[in-house]
Amino acid sequence: MNSGIKIIECPRDAMQGIKEFIPTKFKIDYINQLLKVGFHTIDFGSFVSPKVIPQLKDTSEVLESLNLQSTSTKLLSIIANYRGANQACLFEEIDYLGFPLSVSEEFQIRNTNLTISQAIDSLQEIQNLCIQKNKNLVVYLSMAFGNPYGERYHPEIIADLINKLHFLDVKTIALSDTTGVSSPENISSLFRTLILEYSDIEFGAHFHTTPDKWKEKVDSAYQNGCIRFDSAIKGFGGCPMAKDDLTGNMPTEKLISYFPNKLDLNIEEFDKSLKLSETVFESNRR
């Protein structure tokens, strides 16, 4: 049954913080297996400096070996500047470019070496490029549910950034719970308000969570109109800055269990992916 719910599987997010290099063949085999499941999108790699994220320096090589002929799953790559966007646009296989924009000035500078204002200017150029190259821009709004750096946080800051992105005609925005601090109250409030006000924007949820909090986060978002969810098998990945080994990505298997009979996924292939993930991640889990 296709209910319109979109699951974006995020092996890139799960891999990027692992220090020991995962062999390219492992990545290719794993993502090719994920392509058989039927996810809406796979966040498969990134075009950022290999000095910053050495784990993903082989993104182009991985892409060249993906079996895309018999799948409707779309591919998303993360970029952090115009140069990365231009590189990603060289590949027809990539549908979405994902850009990290933050509520936190400090995190924005750490993550992209840009201030928030500079990041907005960069997004204008990247959006123009996406339109020219027939790509779709996804903006990940990090720290959307709380700022861990002691900087001022208020929903009005979110509203101001969303308004600027709306002006740039960004059609997809993922509200990101970077350090796992979201609560049912602020999740409900943000999704309810933003979805009502910006009917032409698709708002997604990129949650980081502890094992006991995943369901209340999904429920709060879904009950307030969100149908786009990022996740990673077994919750691998997350944000190292959270400084909590239990805080990882939303586990895909938990997300699937929340939507019984509502997802058009091949569960047999998903079970194979679940098993294969142990080979790729278990010995390197951060």
Q: CATH homologous superfamily name?
A: Aldolase class I
How many individual β-strands? Answer: 9
Could you tell me the mean pLDDT? 92
CATH class: Alpha Beta
- Low-confidence stretches at least 5 residues in length (pLDDT < 50)? none
The total of helices stands at 11
Query: What is the CATH architecture annotation?
Result: Alpha-Beta Barrel
Ends distance: 36 Å
Q: How many domains comprise the coordinates?
A: 1
Helical content band: 25-40%
Rounded Rg: 17 Å
What is the 3D shape?
globular
The main sheet orders its strands as 1-2-3-4-5-6-7-8
Main beta sheet? 8 strands, parallel, barrel
Beta-strand residue fraction: 15-25%
Order of helices and strands: EHHEHEHEHHEHEHEHEEHH
Multimeric state: single chain
Q: Which structural class should the secondary elements be placed in?
A: alpha/beta
List the helices and strands and how they pair.
Blueprint: E1 6-9, H1 11-15, H2 24-34, E2 41-47, H3 59-64, E3 74-79, H4 82-88, E4 96-102, H5 105-112, H6 116-133, E5 136-142, H7 155-167, E6 172-177, H8 184-197, E7 202-209, H9 214-222, E8 228-231, E9 248-249, H10 252-258, H11 267-281
Parallel strand pairs: 1-2, 1-8, 2-3, 3-4, 4-5, 5-6, 6-7, 7-8
Antiparallel strand pairs: 7-9
